[in-house]
Design brief:
six-stranded mixed beta sheet; disulfide bond; postsynaptic cell membrane; Rossmann fold; 820 residues; glycoprotein; alpha/beta; ligand-gated monoatomic ion channel activity; Ionotropic_Glu_rcpt
Length: 820
C-alpha cells in the first residue's frame, strides 16, 4: 500500500524522466528502462531498433519496433517501479531493461503483476532472488538474458573437482558473488570434497577507489599472517586486473599460487602477468562478433532486441492483433493487459543463437544454455620475453616501426616459437645486467626479471650455474661456455740480430756444440786406435784423415749438410757417422720447422700467454663484467686461495676499477692498451673476427654451457629443451654458429689467429741426444771388436813368420852380387 500511495507524486515527475524515440522506426512500442550504468545513448538505441539492422529478416512486419525510453539515475528501485508503470500505461507491448539488480527486482514485480513480458539485460550478474517464482502460472513473465549464479557455481564445481584444494580465498565486489560461492560450497560438500573459504569483499565505485581498497585489503590479509595460495575472483574485469597487479606486488603471483578468475568479459592482463599461473574461466561468445574490447552487456542488449523483434513478428503473424486498453498500476485493482499471453509463450519457447551465444530460457526465465571456456595463461599464445644485448647472441636495430631484435639466440627463439606455436613480446633488460645475487638476497639483471616473473623467458648468453639454478630453471645448453682473455695485439718489436737462434733454447745450442766436439774427438780416437783406421795406414791418401782437425771438419760438414767426405772405411767409424747423420737430420728438421713459425710471428711480443701468466704479473690490468656470473666465480674461488685469490684481490684493488659495466666497455678498454678482458670465449671470438687488432690468449677455463632462463617449474622448459636438442642433432646450431661467427668476419686468418710458438727446449730434444750417445757407445764397442778381430784372426793369418825362408832375403856379396 505504501508504494501505491507514492504513485500520484511520481506521476507528476515522470515528464522529466521519460523520453520517446521518434516513431519513424515502427508502430509497435517497446518500453526500455535504462540506468546510467548501461551507457547506451538514444542514438545507439535507435540503431539497435532500426529496420536497417534487419533489412533481410523476412519475419519482420512493416510495423517494426519503436522504443519508448525511460531513464533512471543509479540503481534506484523507486524510480524503476514508477517508470515501469508509466511505460505500461503508455501502451507498450513489452518491457526491455538494462539496470542494476535492485531495480531489476521491482521491474520483475511490475511485469508479473501486470502480466506484461519483460526481457532483462542487467548490467551485471544478479543473485537468483531477483527472478521471482511464477507461482501457479506455467510461464514466467521475466526473461533474463544472463545465466543464473547457479550456472556459475556448477561451472566452478566441475573445475575444482579436478584440483586438490582444501582452502580458498574468495574475492568479490558484489553480493551476487556470495550466492555463487554459497552454491559452490554446498555442491562440493555434496561431492564429498568440502572446501574452507575466506571471503574478502572489495567495494568500489571508481578505479582509484578500487586500487586503494584492494591494496589495503590484501595488505591487511598478509599482516594477519595469512598467505593463501588458492584464489577465486568473481567480479568486474577491473577488479580482476587490479587484484593481479596487487598480487604481483605482494608476491602472491608465483608458481606456488593458483588463481581462478570467473569473468564474462576479457581481462586485459599485461604481459607482466602472463606467467602461467592464472586461469580465466569465462563465457564463450561468437568469435566473429566478439573482441577483447567488446562489452558483454552490449551483446546481450543486441540479442534482446533481436529476440523481441522476432517474437513480436511471430505473434503478429499467428493471431489478429487487436488494440487493447493499456494496463494500469494506479489505485484500486490492477488492470492487466489482455493479450492472451501469446507473446509471453513465444518468448518462453524461443530457441535461437545470438551474438552472445545460444538463447533458451528455463522455466524460471534464466538463459542457462551457456558455454564456458578455460584459458590457462600458463602458456599463453603470447609471452613476455626478456633479452640481454650481447653480440652476436642478441642485437638490436632501430627501425621506424620500433626496435627489432636479431642474432644467434633470436634465431633459436624463432625456431622454438615455430615448433610450439607461440608468439612473444621482447624487451631489453632494464639495468643491462646478467644477474647476480645481492647482499639482501634479491637478484638483479635478467635473472631478477625472471625471478620476479616479469618475464617468461630470458634470452641471452646466460651461463648455467649452480647458484642460478637454485632460483630459476634453464633449458638444455645450446652452446658450450668457456672463459679466455683477450688483449690488444702488440706493436712490431725492434729487429733482433740474433733472432735466428730463437727456435732452439740456449741449452739445446750448447748441447749441440758439445756434441760436435765430443763426436769429433771420439771419431779421432777411433781412427787412432782402430787397426783399420786411416792412422794405421803408413802409406796412401787416407793417412791425413786421422788428424783431429780433419775429424772436426767431417763432423761440421755433416752438420751443415755439405757431404760426408772423407769416407769412413772402418766399421766403428761408420757406425758413429751413421748415428751422427741421424742426429743431424732431426736437429736440422726441428730447427727449420720452428724457424718458419718464429719468422711468421716474429713481430708479436706477447707479454702473457695464459691466465697463469696474467696472474703472476702486475703491469697489465685485467677484469670482467660487473655483476656477471664470471665475477661471482672469481669471488667464490678467491676463498680457496692460490691463483684465483691473487686475481680477485688484484681486480678489486685496481684503481680505476678493473670491472666494466658491459662487454662493449671492456673491449674498448682492451683496444686502448694495457688491459686484458676476461670473458666468454664465444663472444671474444666474434669480436676478434671483427676487430683485427685484438688477440685471444690461453686455453679456456671455467667451462660450462649457455641456456635460456625461465621461472621455476615452467611447464614449457622440456618443450624448449627438446627444440634445442633437435637443432643440435640436425646441425642447425652449427650452421647458425657459422653464420654469426665466421661468415661476416672482416679479418684474415693470419690476422685473426694467433700462432703460439715456443722455443724448443732440451727436454724436447733429449731423445735425439740419447740416440747419439747410444751410437757413440756402439762405435766404441765396434772398436774393441775390431781390435780383437785384428789381434786374433787377421794378424796371425796375414803376417809372415820372421824365420820363414820366404821372408829371409838372399845373402849378398860384398860387391853386391847375390850369394847362390
Amino acid at each position: 500500500m505504501k508504494t501505491r500511495e507514492t504513485l500520484p507524486l511520481l506521476l507528476l515527475l515522470s515528464p522529466l524522466l521519460f523520453t520517446t524515440v521518434p516513431a519513424t522506426l515502427g508502430s509497435t512500442a517497446i518500453g526500455v528502462i535504462l540506468d546510467d550504468s548501461a551507457q547506451i545513448d538514444d542514438d545507439a538505441l535507435a540503431r539497435l531498433f532500426a529496420r536497417l539492422d534487419v533489412a533481410d529478416d523476412v519475419n519482420v512486419t512493416d510495423e517494426g519496433l519503436r522504443p519508448v525510453v525511460a531513464r533512471i539515475t543509479g540503481d534506484d528501485p523507486s524510480a524503476a517501479i514508477w517508470q515501469g508503470c508509466r511505460l505500461v500505461e503508455e501502451g507498450v507491448l513489452a518491457l526491455l531493461s538494462a539496470t542494476g539488480c535492485r531495480s531489476l527486482l521491482v521491474i520483475n514485480s511490475v511485469s508479473a503483476t501486470l502480466r506484461i513480458p519483460h526481457v532483462a539485460t542487467p548490467v551485471r550478474s544478479c543473485p537468483a532472488g531477483v527472478m521471482p517464482g511464477h507461482g501457479s502460472s506455467a510461464l514466467p513473465y521475466t526473461f533474463n538474458m544472463r545465466p543464473s549464479p547457479e550456472v556459475h557455481a556448477h561451472a566452478l564445481r566441475d573445475m575444482l573437482n579436478t584440483l586438490t584444494w582444501t582452502m580458498v580465498t574468495f574475492l568479490y565486489d558484489h553480493d551476487d558473488g556470495l550466492t555463487v560461492m554459497k552454491n559452490l560450497l554446498e555442491a562440493l560438500a555434496d561431492d564429498g570434497k568440502p572446501l574452507k573459504a575466506v571471503f574478502l569483499k572489495i567495494e568500489w565505485d571508481t578505479e582509484e577507489d578500487l586500487g586503494r581498497t584492494t591494496d589495503e585489503r590484501v595488505r591487511n590479509l598478509l599482516e594477519q599472517g595469512i598467505k593463501p595460495n588458492s584464489f577465486i575472483v568473481y567480479g568486474r574485469s577491473a577488479l580482476a586486473r587490479t587484484l593481479l597487479q596487487k598480487a604481483d606486488k605482494y608476491s602472491l603471483l608465483t608458481r606456488e599460487t593458483q588463481w581462478i578468475i570467473l569473468q564474462e568479459e576479457s581481462v586485459q592482463v599485461p604481459a607482466l602477468f602472463a606467467t602461467g599461473i592464472v586461469t580465466f574461466f569465462r563465457l564463450t561468445f561468437s568469435r566473429a562478433t566478439y573482441s577483447p574490447h567488446s562489452k558483454v552487456h552490449s551483446l546481450y542488449m543486441q540479442d534482446a532486441v533481436s529476440l523481441l523483434r522476432e517474437s513480436v513478428s511471430e505473434a503478429h503473424a499467428s493471431v489478429a492483433w487487436a488494440p487493447s486498453s493499456p494496463a494500469s498500476c494506479g489505485f484500486g485493482p490492477n488492470k492487466v493487459l489482455n493479450e492472451d499471453r501469446k507473446l509471453t509463450r513465444i518468448l518462453a519457447t524461443s530457441k535461437t543463437t545470438g551474438l552472445s551465444g545460444p538463447i533458451q530460457f528455463d522455466e524460471a526465465g534464466w538463459n542457462n544454455l551457456s558455454r564456458w571456456e578455460i584459458i590457462n595463461v600458463e602458456f599463453m599464445a603470447k609471452n613476455g620475453t626478456l633479452a640481454h644485448k650481447e653480440e652476436p647472441f642478441v642485437m638490436k636495430r632501430e627501425t621506424p616501426a620500433g626496435p627489432v631484435f636479431y642474432g644467434f639466440c633470436i634465431d633459436i627463439l624463432d625456431q622454438m616459437a615455430k615448433d610450439h606455436n607461440f608468439r612473444y613480446d621482447i624487451y631489453e633488460t632494464p639495468d643491462r645486467k646478467f644477474g647476480v645475487q645481492l647482499d639482501n638476497g634479491s637478484w638483479n639483471g635478467a635473472i631478477g626479471q625472471v625471478l620476479s616473473r616479469h618475464a617468461d623467458i630470458a634470452v641471452s648468453d646466460l651461463v648455467i650455474s649452480a647458484q642460478r639454478e637454485e632460483v630459476v630453471d634453464f633449458t638444455k645448453p645450446y652452446l658450450d661456455y668457456g672463459v679466455r682473455l683477450i688483449l690488444k695485439k702488440p706493436v712490431d718489436k725492434e729487429q733482433n740480430w740474433w733472432g735466428f737462434l730463437a727456435p732452439l733454447d740456449g741449452t739445446v745450442w750448447w748441447s749441440i756444440l758439445g756434441a760436435v766436439f765430443s763426436v769429433s774427438v771420439l771419431l779421432y780416437l777411433l781412427h787412432r786406435y782402430s787397426p783399420y783406421g786411416s792412422y794405421k795406414q803408413p802409406h796412401g791418401p787416407e793417412k791425413h784423415h786421422s788428424d783431429l782437425k780433419e775429424t772436426v771438419w767431417f763432423i761440421i760438414g755433416s752438420l751443415m749438410q755439405q757431404g760426408g767426405e772423407p769416407i769412413q772405411n772402418f766399421i766403428s767409424g761408420r757406425i758413429l757417422s751413421a748415428f751422427w747423420w741421424f742426429f743431424v737430420l732431426i736437429i736440422i728438421a726441428t730447427y727449420t720447422a720452428n724457424l718458419a713459425a718464429f719468422l711468421t710471428v716474429s713481430r708479436m711480443d706477447i707479454p702473457v700467454r695464459s691466465v697463469q701468466d696474467l696472474a703472476q704479473q702486475a703491469k697489465i690490468k685485467y677484469g670482467t663484467v660487473r655483476d656477471s656470473n664470471l665475477q661471482s666465480f672469481f669471488r667464490s674461488r678467491s676463498q680457496e686461495g692460490g691463483m684465483y685469490e691473487r686475481m680477485w684481490n688484484f681486480m678489486v684493488g685496481s684503481d680505476p676499477s678493473a670491472f666494466v659495466d658491459t662487454t662493449v666497455e671492456g673491449l674498448e678498454r682492451v683496444q686502448k692498451g694495457d688491459y686484458a678482458f676476461l670473458w666468454d670465449t664465444a663472444v671474444l671470438e666474434y669480436e676478434k673476427n671483427r676487430k683485427c687488432d685484438l688477440i685471444i690468449i690461453g686455453d679456456p677455463f671455467y667451462k660450462g654451457g649457455y641456456g635460456f632462463a625461465m621461472p621455476r617449474g615452467a611447464p614449457y622448459r622440456d618443450d624448449l629443451s627438446m627444440t634445442i636438442l633437435r637443432m643440435q642433432g640436425s646441425g642447425h646450431i652449427e650452421k647458425l654458429q657459422t653464420r654469426w661467427w665466421t661468415t661476416n668476419s672482416t679479418c684474415s686468418d693470419e690476422e685473426a689467429t694467433m700462432v703460439e710458438t715456443t722455443k724448443v727446449e732440451f727436454v724436447g730434444m733429449a731423445g735425439v741426444f740419447a740416440v747419439l750417445l747410444m751410437g757413440c757407445a756402439l762405435s766404441v764397442i765396434a772398436l774393441f771388436l775390431e781390435l780383437a778381430w785384428h789381434l786374433f784372426v787377421t794378424r796371425p793369418r796375414d803376417t809372415p813368420d820372421r824365420h820363414s825362408p820366404a821372408e829371409i832375403p838372399p845373402p849378398q856379396l860384398p860387391n853386391g852380387d847375390l850369394f847362390v
